[in-house]
Amino acid sequence: MKKTHQGLLAVIGMAVGATAFATASPAHDVDWGAYQIGDLRSGYTYATAETRAIQDDDFANPAMIRVDSGEALWNKVEGEVGKSCAECHGDASDSMRGVATSYPKYDGALGKLKNIEQQINACRTEQMKADAWKYESSELLSMTVYVRHQSRGMPISVAIDGPAAPYFEKGKEFYYQRRGLLDMSCANCHVDNAGGIIRANTLSQGQTTGFPVYRLKWQKVGSTHRRFRGCNKQVRSTPYAYGSDEYLNLELFVAWRGRGLLVETPAIRN
Amino acid sequence: MAKAKARVKAPKTVAKGEVFQVKTLISHKMETGQRKDKAGEKIPRMIINSFVCKYNGEQVFACDWHPSISANPYTAFYLKASKSGTLDFIWTDDEGSVFEKSADITVT
Which of A62, A217, B16, B18 has a CA 20 to 30 Å removed from the CA of A184? Predict the structure, then answer.
């Protein structure tokens, strides 16, 4: 009696295991154009047609408001020095073009990786003598969106050699490390089961090309680190802090995974 | 007083009697009143409850919004003009804040 019971449980267990990752990928013969390079696919290609339509129309894209407010902040004089971003960097469409493709990158003075958010705050505290913006604040999100937006349409090409190499390796280790109560790594979803369904959602490859991204679930724009924290919580693991070294290393590894894909900031995701 | 940024897109010139599209988007948190904060207290409802579009002072489009409208609401609608004038867009939220934007249209 006991034996049959256990056997039954095992069968149920397998059935759940199979349906949790039932593959229902959109047709492979769709031509995604610049959103796909070989096996690499932007999150855009996993989104529904309705979500893609919002991203395709710059007017309907609610994150474009962030681009506008980022531009206003770019020209705003702040801090003791009395400078704005524009006074050093001039026209962002020139000076910031291509920036998003190379971050996060190794910073010799810091002795570790630095992402765009931290570079913005470094400029503020060192050059402008202004207060740093809080991670995930509306100002920092707007400025990050504005800076990254200038590289829209350019391919991601982060440096993983030289001084960045050890950080890249740590990021890679993090990515494949199982964690949390569910004992899952990033790769379990985004490498092994990209295109599959997890409960009601389609899993993507977890590319960061469109970040900071407007998530319909969030009803606002959020950073890569917010996304990382959300993923970590979902596998019942304790998330790391915004801007932590762990997430910086991971950000570099994830950016490298999408090398060649085009920057889409600000993208729309579900 | 809440702050909101509105964007409006309407053609600058239209032919007389031509049907044209007007697109609007406004940044607003649209708090539904259904959510609770960390202390378990209800977060009060704060949504834009009315959107009106006037042409030369005369109302040509209006709608009432309810709590299921998303944050940063986007609205597109169609109009037809017989003479040149100004479109005024007016959003009003639960606090009584009024957000306005206008666009000029020339009929050729």
Answer: A217
Contacting residues of B for A216, CB less than 8 Å apart: 70
In the annotation, is A231 catalytic? yes
Residues A67-83: tens digit of each pLDDT: 999 999 999 999 999 99
- Give the count of beta carbons closer than 10 Å to the beta carbon of residue A56: 12
Chain segment B10-44, per-residue pLDDT in tens: 999 999 989 999 999 999 999 999 999 999 999 99
Domain CATH code at residue B54: 2.60.40.10
Q: Which domain holds residue B67?
A: 6-107
Radius of gyration of chain A (CA): 20
* Interface touch A62/B71, C-beta < 8 Å: yes
Contact A62 B29 (CB under 8 A): no
Domain A64-149 fold is Cytochrome Bc1 Complex; Chain D, domain 2 (1.10.760)
For chain A, which residues lie within 8 Å of any Cβ of chain B, measuring from their own Cβ?
A: 59-60, 62, 64-65, 68-69, 216, 219-220
Say if the Cβ atoms of A59 and B72 lie within 8 Å. no
Q: Which two tokens stand for residue B25?
A: 């988007």
Q: How far is A215 from chain B (nearest CA, A)?
A: 11
pTM of the model: 0.84
Token output for A231? 């993923």
Q: What is the pLDDT of residue A113?
A: 94
Disruptive mutation site among A55, A71, A219, A221 for chain B (greatest number of B CBs within 10 Å): A219
pLDDT in tens, A160-181: 999 999 999 999 999 999 999 9
Tell me what pLDDT residue A213 has.
95
ipTM of the complex: 0.78
Phi and psi of A83, rounded to 5°?
Answer: -120, 155
Q: What is the total count of domains within chain B?
A: 1
What pLDDT sits at residue A14?
Answer: 43
Q: Which residues of B touch A64 (CB under 8 A)?
A: 7
Residue A268 phi/psi, 5-degree rounding, is -115, 130
